[in-house]
Amino acid sequence: MQANIVLLPGDGVGPEVTAEATRVLNAVAELGGHGFQLESHPMGGNAIDDFDNPLPPATLAACKAADAVLLGAVGGPKWSDPTAELRPEQGLLDLRAEMGLFANLRPVPVFESLAPFAPLKPELLRGVDLLFVRELTGGIYFGPRQEQGDGDVAHDTLVYSTAEVERVARVALRAARGRRGKVASIDKANVLASMRLWRRSVTEVASAYPDVEVSHHLVDAFAMQLMRSPADYDVILAGNMFGDILSDEAAILAGSLGMLPSASLSSGRQGLYEPVHGSAPDIAGRGIANPIGAILSAAMLLRHSLDLETEAAQVEAAVANVLDDGLRTADLAPDGQAAISTTEMGQAITDRIGGA
Ligand code: IPM
Ligand code: MN
Fold first, then answer.
1. What atom of ligand 1 comes closest to residue 244's alpha carbon?
2. Closest Cα to atom 10, ligand 1: which residue?
3. Which ligand is closest in space to the CA of residue 262?
4. Any idea which residues carry the catalytic annotation?
5. For the chain, what percent of residues have pLDDT higher than 90?
6. What is the pLDDT of residues 103-144, one digit of tens each?
7. Of 69, 189, 210, 347, which has the fewest Cβ atoms less than 10 A away?
8. Each residue of 143-186: pLDDT tens digit?
9. Tens digit of pLDDT for each residue in 34-77?
């Protein structure tokens, strides 16, 4: 098949990990006779430096016209001045809103070979298979805000409409049908009016999915339960900010934040794919970042935007294979154990695609 894929390498380790995901996509294309057109565009801090805009109009137009977008990471200390007018992160938020990417899927890959390395007891990890569905274009990230005022007060507003909650709830309920049939919906309904609306809207939509078991949890208690008995949960549905926080917490289960992929989807086939980790400025440019989150994001791109399920599964199997063989980037290598570089990991995974 032919596909037009926009690459947004971004900042920090972004370019390093996207290069490895690109290597994998090129291998998949060659093996299957697909024509993937990959085209890089500036976005984030680098785009602020070169274009005074974290999301230049040409980048946005290219993303809107693409079949799929693969992003590395944005941000870094250079652009973190609290008084700065332009922020790399704003480019990403605008891109999500402009592309209508309201549903963010964040599976937590728990590979057996990494279990002894994760900080939790290995027996707690047995049977863990989680999928976060995070609402991505609403909530406190997008509500009315005021940063300046008279300088002493700033506010952000948490707003949700029933329509916004219902459409993302449907994504979670449908996903649960193809899995273990359970959705845990996260809120703070004991305190926040917007979260009472959340709970009501989820309950309403869920009545059309009697085969799916829906439970409701307050975010604070759930944050603890998630580490105490992660195998109890299947799909976890959350608003923008709670989903952001809980999915980083869940990285503990995968052994490293560098392992987690994500897909941000609209109502159509188009999507944006990015690792959950950030730009990691502390390790950028050293060739030691874990490219697996980016590579598994490329697998999600193949599955969700290009409908190439077989190829997606091949990439995931190749990742499992290198981990079974004991290959580890530094984030997964306990002190003293030999670690391989970002490029070596990308190459090792590429070599195993198609069972080579
Ligand atoms: C994420 C990131 C972003 C978010 C930032 C970079 C805007 O943390 O994708 O999880 O908060 O959504
Ligand atoms: Mn985050």
1. 10
2. 244
3. 1
4. 141, 188, 220, 244, 248
5. 90
6. 999 999 998 888 877 889 989 999 999 999 999 999 999 999
7. 210
8. 999 876 567 889 999 999 999 999 999 999 999 999 999 999 99
9. 999 999 999 999 999 999 999 999 999 999 999 999 999 999 99
From the CA of 124, how far away is ligand 1's center (Å)? 28
Separation in Å, CA 145 to CA 97, 158, 159, 271, 356:
16, 10, 11, 27, 53
Predicted local distance difference test score (pLDDT) of residue 350: 98
Q: How far is CA 238 from CA 74, 134, 195, in A?
A: 23, 5, 10
The per-residue pLDDT for 247 is 95
Classify residue 88 by burial, with Cβ atoms within 10 Å: 0-12, 13-18, 19+.
Answer: buried
